[in-house]
Structures are given as C-alpha cells and as structure tokens.
Amino acid sequence: MIPLSEAQERVLAGCDVLDEAVVGVGQARGLVTTETVVAAELVPPFDNTAMDGFAVRSSDVADAPVTLAIAGTVAAGVPPDITVGAGQAARIMTGAVIPPGADAVVMVELTETSADGTEVTVAQSVPAGNHIRRAGEDLKVGQTVFGPGEVLTPGHLGVLTSLGLYQVKVRPRARVGVMSTGDELVEGPQPLERGQIRDSNRHTLLALLAEAGCDPVDLGSMADNEDEIAAGIRTGVEKCDALLTSGGVSMGDFDYVKKVLDEIGDMTWMQVAIKPAKPLAFGLVQGIPVFGLPGNPVSSMVSFELFARPGLRKMMGHPPGTWHRQPVMGRVAEGLRRRPDGKTHFARVRVEYADGEFLAQSAGGQGSHQLSAMAAADALAVLPDGDGLDVGEPVTLLILR
Fold it and tell me: What is the pTM for the complete model shown?
C-alpha cells in the first residue's frame, strides 16, 4: 500500500491545466479568470440619486423647514431637462441623474408636497452630497477590477456587465465522461433478477462532477466485455478532457477495465492506505487523464473526493490551496470506533456546529456498500490507524456540505 499523499501527488502530476477559453458571462460562474480586467468606464457612469425624493440646493434647506417650488421631475433613465435654481427642487427617482444646480437629495419621507403639486416642504436640512452616488465611486477608468486566478462569483459577473464586458477569458469547465462497468449493473425501475444491482455509481458521479463545476458527460454502462469497454474508453477520451470509470480496478479475474487500460493507456494501479477507496487507477489515455475508481458506491464517492475532484480543480485553474477540501478541527460527539489495519479511515459523519465547535457523530453504517450513510453525511472524519476516537476527542473533518 502507498500513502494517501503519494497517491494524490501522482494524480495531480498527471492533470494539466486546460487551455484558456473565452466564454460569455452567462456560462462563467465558478470559472477561473486568466486575464487582468481593467475598467474602461466609470461605475456609476454619472452622479445619481440613491433615494426617491427631491434634488435640492443644500444651501436652500439649511434653515429647514422650508418650502420650495417644484421645477419638474427627473426619472431614471432619462437625461434631466431642467436646472434646479435658487428656491427650487426637482422631484427625482432612484438612479436618476442629478440635475444641474442641485447638490443634494432629500428623501421623500422628509418632504410634503402641496395639494396642487407645485411646492414641496422640506422638514430637515441636509448636507451637500446627501444621498448622491458619485460617478466613478465604485470603479474608475484604468482601475484593476480583478486579476488572473479569480473564481468568478455572481458579484464578479455583475461587475463585468456593469463595465459592458460580456465575455471573459477563463479556464473552461472540464468536460468529464463517466462510464460504469459490470455485467451485474442494470438501468431503470424494472424488478431486479437475482444477482443484479442498479447502476447508482454513474448517476452519483455525474452529480458530483456537476457540483464540482465540471461539465459531466454520461457515457453509459458497459458489460464485462473487453471490446465494449475499450470502445467506451476511446469514445470518452476523444470528446472529453478527463474520464471517470467505476468498477473493475481491483485484482479480480474479471476486472476487464484494468486489462483494457493497460493495453491502451499509461496507467498506474495503486493500493492506497485508506478505507474506503483503497484501489485506485490513474493514468493517461491519448493524453487524457483517466480515473479508475472502485465499484463499491461509498468507495467511489470517497475516491472522487480525495483524488478526482482535486485533479479536476487543478485542470480548471483553481489555486493550489483550494484543490483539496480544507480540513477543519472538530470534536467527537459519540465514539468513532475502528480496527487497526495500517490505513487511514474516512468515517461518514453528521456534523453539528454548537458552542463554537464542530461536533461529529456517525452518519450510519460504515460499510463501503452502505450508500445511505454517505447520503446522510455532512463530512468525512479522518481516523488515523488505531482503535478510533472516544467521545470528546479532537477529530479532523473534511466538510462536504
């Protein structure tokens, strides 16, 4: 068996960063920038009001309450066609351009309009600049907005569009194919025959890829047939940036995935000192990373978390410190038992945050086939070799959600 860290390093070394792409802002959320974005416009582009109210000269309301003549109305999106003179006010709507002559806005709650709509009484004085958003207050021309390596959030996309930028240079989403193998696998709700199981791994992995920001591609399920498996893998690497297989990576006589990948790829077959997810295959087929994940459903998910997800995040340009789940410390709320076997165990746990700390307890059965406990888990508890952890002991947690 090899240490977890060594297996992770081998995987990361084989995952090259994807080439730069230009995408529209509608497809850019979660992607990583490859360029420095510089503002070519002022944001906001003009002085405007932050409130519905009246644009005034601050000197005219210094001795409020005071009554002013209404010179007109300024609506948002319409250039003002009036000037506010001495003793006057202009009705103004949020976001509208501040009209010439005015240097402050009085919010509507501090005003009362006359019955005939020709005058307004201002109840309180306001300083110059009151409720005015100045041109360039957010961004100035020539200002660096953000640089390469930035993960684009909805806020970033709002900034881009506020500058009139509707395309951005990024590392694209990794297009990742998923195929599962095994004569025992069936798809659909029909009654199972003896010896059959439904193919849950493929659907789970497709969902994990989408959650990780990838573009998942369903390559279907393959029977235990060398030609069929070889054709499926070749199809996958021709149209994808990476490939996940599920099942057929251990030492059994019918593990055809191993035989096929050895023939058409440059693969490394590892027995990692962890539980679950000990067997792992990784390598390149026609230059495309291929992750051979174990067939047990929990093992498949844990293997994805520890190996595939970090490699794919590297490919999509995420900073090195974010490739892996960042561990946090918690405390054991109920005993997490295990047997010494020379491996690090990843227990599926539910986590509660109480009194300033994470408290972890088992999410259910810990067998590699017991997917319901994985579904109930909020985190993986890292249990070093030994007998496990007792109530109250500190525990390292990888938070999943």
Answer: 0.89
Mode of pairing for the β-strands spanning 104-107 and 119-122: unpaired
> Which residue from 272, 370, 377 is spatially nearest to 10, judged by alpha carbons?
272
Among the listed residues 360, 344, 363, 341, the one whose alpha carbon sits nearest the alpha carbon of residue 352: 360
Helix, strand, coil shares, percent, the chain, to 5: 25, 35, 45
Three-class SS of 13-68: HCCCCCCCEEEEHHHCCCCEECCCEECCCCECCCCEECCCEEEECHHHHCCCCEEE
Quote the CA–CA distance of 73 and 75 in Å, as a whole number.
Answer: 6
How many degrees, rounded to 5, is the angle at CA 71 between CA 65 and CA 73? 105
pLDDT digits (tens, 9 = 90+) for 70-110: 999 999 999 999 999 999 999 999 999 999 999 999 999 99
Peptide bond into 44 cis (omega under 30): yes
Q: Give the SS3 label for residue 320.
A: helix
